[in-house]
Amino acid sequence: FYNLDTRLSLAVNVRTLTALSGVLSGAVGITRIDCAAAGGIVGIAYEDGTNSSTVHFFRASDGAAVLRTFLNGGRPRICAVGTTFFFTAFDGVNTLLLAKYDPTTDADKTDLSNITTSSNGIYDLVTSLSGVSFWVAFNTAAPTTSIRRYNSAGALSTTINGPAVLYDYLSVRETTTRVHLVSVLAAGTCQLRSYTLQTGIPAPIAQ
Q1: Is the model's pTM score more than 0.70?
Q2: C-alpha span between 73 and 55 (Å, rounded)
Q3: Which residues of the chain fall below pLDDT 50?
Q4: Under 8 Å CB-to-CB from 95, ≥6 apart: which residues?
Q5: Which of 39, 86, 93, 157 has an alpha carbon within 20 to 30 A of 127's alpha carbon?
């Protein structure tokens, strides 16, 4: 079976996952698969073993292909905001790439401004609780940690400065009034930090 490093959108269910075997049939070196679904379209992003990421879009109802596109980097993530899919990849050096695709209006993906040019490749991507924006949390080798919210057009709207710690793993999640950062250190220590959202401006609370 494929080596899965998967963080699935809440919109993805078991029936969606059954399509993976057909989409990836005959593929080799597939790792780090991520999925999202919106408007009857499923997006699957995966690394192909050459530090390149492929993103497939297909109709959930019949499996018909909609678009196959690429990002010049590995460790892909994908999420959906409305009918628009946002997907990311790490270029293997220091840059987190960002692109979008709306199957209802676009013929191909649109490359957006890079999330950062100082990443060490440790990051996470998730749709906001309201479904109208998305969050990206990333680490740099400096080290620094940043949590950023992007609007439905893919423009940066909020930045939270996190701890100056180098992590092995990051995960970001939002609840009604807070955004949470879960981080794992090399020694296996897991840390949770929570930030309140006050009139749209996050401020850290006691950890």
Answers
A1: yes
A2: 12
A3: 1-19, 21, 200-202, 204-207
A4: 73, 114, 116, 117, 119
A5: 93
